[in-house]
Amino acid sequence: MLTVEKLESGYGESAVLRGVTLQVRPGQVVCLLGRNGTGKSTFVKSVMGVLKARGGTVSYGGRDLTRQAPGERARSGIGYVPQGREIFGQLSVRENILIGLEAARGKRRGDDIPPAAVERFPVLPTMYGRRGGDLSGGQQQQLAFARVLAAEPELLLLDEPCEGIQPSIVDDIRDVIRSIKSDGRTAILLVEQSLEFVRSVADYVYILEKGSIAWQGELEALDDETVRRYLTV
């Protein structure tokens, strides 16, 4: 599904990613771990095209997307929930979700919100008239999920979905990821700091260290020694 080979990226004169190779297969939940500053968000931005790759390739479904714009990647079937959520604060909840339909690749148009976009977040339809900026952090995260699910993506890129939100919403997000996983139709690449959360949802793990993959393996192989070596602060 998603194949990233020898990806290099960074900001200005600073190189952040150094030859990162990673794969996400259909139906998998793959987690990218690493200490702060190792390049996790840079990697997701580079996969989505928000940040231009300096080297390597990004392929999805056998198609080379390395030089494609973010909108084209979204229309190819990749959904992206960025760190910080990036909700349109002045737009209503309903309008925010409808924006997600722009990536629906012609499958759905008009002003109808797909039921699948909000069925996992039953509180959102009760808030359709509220401004996105008036929601709590947890509610905004739910809205960001619903917005990206409106386009029915086949791959989700989730960058720190549990950052700065209350434990009850973290539990809801865990349930949503598990539900998506059980459906088997959508793969997920997850960037997350909470090892407990990762252990509850992931199938396969990559660990970034200084912009390169330092370890990878099935979740069951992520032992205490590996955690101490690459993740403990």
UniProtKB/TrEMBL annotation:
Higher taxonomy: Bacteria, Bacillati, Bacillota, Bacilli, Bacillales
InterPro entries: AAA+_ATPase (IPR003593), ABC_transporter-like_ATP-bd (IPR003439), ABC_transptr_urea_ATP-bd_UrtE (IPR017780), BCAA_Transport_ATP-bd_LivF (IPR052156), P-loop_NTPase (IPR027417)
UniProt keyword Transferase present: no
Domain ABC transporter as annotated: residue spans: 2-233
Residues that span the membrane, as ranges: none
One GO molecular-function entry: ATP hydrolysis activity
Name of this chain's protein: Urea ABC transporter ATP-binding subunit UrtE
CDD domains reported in the protein's UniProt record: ABC_TM1139_LivF_branched
Family: Belongs to the ABC transporter superfamily.
Gene Ontology BP terms: L-amino acid transport
Alphabetical keyword list: Amino-acid transport, ATP-binding, Nucleotide-binding, Transport
Coiled-coil blocks: none
